UniProtKB/TrEMBL annotation:
This is Mitochondrial fission process protein 1. The chain crosses the membrane at residues 76-95, 115-133. Belongs to the MTFP1 family. The keyword Transmembrane helix applies.
Amino acid sequence: MNDQPPCDIFRDTWVRYLGYANEVGEAFRPVVPSALVRFSYGLAFSYVVADTMDKGVKMFVEDGRPRNVMKASGDALLWQTLASIILPGITINRLCAYSGRALNKFKKVPAPARALLTVGIGLASIPIIIVPIDHGVTYLMDHTYRRWVT
């Protein structure tokens, strides 16, 4: 007997990191064209939509009631939008902006080096912010949306 829940490919595997594509784009914003940053958001939003559809289809197969399908889909969409797009995107964007401003005070360091340092700071912070944001969004959802829709 296996009491463990089945593996959720969108949240329990490497696929989860596709939701952070926009953070990589934000980290590289100082050195790449804005079209690439927008593309990274498109990739992250595609991940969010795929997870939302997965949760909705699973609930449809399991239960079939439209209300429960909508609740499961809404939960996934809201959780993923907050945990994968909005909060990490703002965090990395602001961290890179503030680091870039701070590094610009060091005029002896060449501008390309300052830009690459900003990228490095942004990239290095991604693994640090993932778990706290995921747990924080889960806590927020448990105490708001998930209580309201039951």
